[in-house]
Amino acid sequence: MSYRNYVITENMDEKEKDKLKIIHSIYKKQRENINYDFNLYLKEKYLKTTCITNFWSLFSLLDRITDLSDPDTALPNSIHALQTAEAIRQDGSFPDWFILCGLIHDMGKILFINGNDKDGTSKNTQWALVGDTFITGCDIPDEVVLSEYNQFNKDHKKINKYQNKCGLDKCEVSFGHDEYMYYLLKVNNHKMPLEAEYIIRYHSLYLYHSSNVYDNLLNNIDIKMKKVVKDFNRFDLYSKNDSLPVIWTTQLKDYYSILIKKYISSDMMIKN
């Protein structure tokens, strides 16, 4: 199976072409709309908590959303999450918090419950919720997926907000499920190491962990953490298999409930 193919060709069947056309549309709208100022607006609007909800009630919302930007799976995100986590667990080389990251890495997509079409955060639009992220407030590198749409971005080739070695934490990475879940972990006082925060916050920033185009912006911690995010990415990407979905069992839920209680909580503060 080939992964991350975004090229539309004449010999594709119509169903595959239609899926890729939707993906292209999402990325075009992402580049058109998410600039430095709009990113600040999205964070101000959505990075809030107003109530406490059971973790599994929140996670079950992933049953209701499929990532429209992903060319490699049509399964609900709850199944992709379990596939990723179980692939890490079966590898046997990583600590339990790394396995938990597999389960929750896309959980920020639950934002669609409070999202809307105008912001690109709804189940139908998704352009400010899913897909590869990039740093706003500066040029968007040609190495980004579907770079032909960079020309429509308000910041591209016009401004540069950053100093060399400023660090990713000082950069406005385009808003999406990564930033939302990172925020939820922080406000809920999670007990995982810094490596887990980098996985959750930057796993969609392919330009960081799978290339060197942002290396001029990285500080020493970012450079050190790049490997762990890249290690995680191979499970996130290569565990996708719609023909062999992993099925939830009582034993699996019990196992992950223990990890959730250990590192996060059975309940989480969230925006409602």
Largest sheet: 2 strands, antiparallel
Number of strands: 2
Average per-residue pLDDT, rounded, comes to: 96
Secondary structure: helix percent: 40-55%
Overall radius of gyration: 18 Å
Count of runs of 4 or more consecutive helical residues:
10
Backbone shape = globular
Quaternary structure of the protein: single chain
Explain what the structure shows.
This protein is mainly α and 272 residues long. It has one domain (14-270). The protein contains 10 helices and 2 strands. It has helices spanning 14-33, 36-46, 55-59, 77-91, 96-104, 177-187, 194-202, 206-209, 220-238, 250-263; strands at 51-54, 267-270. It has a two-stranded antiparallel sheet. The longest helix is centred in the first third of the chain and has 20 residues, at 14-33.
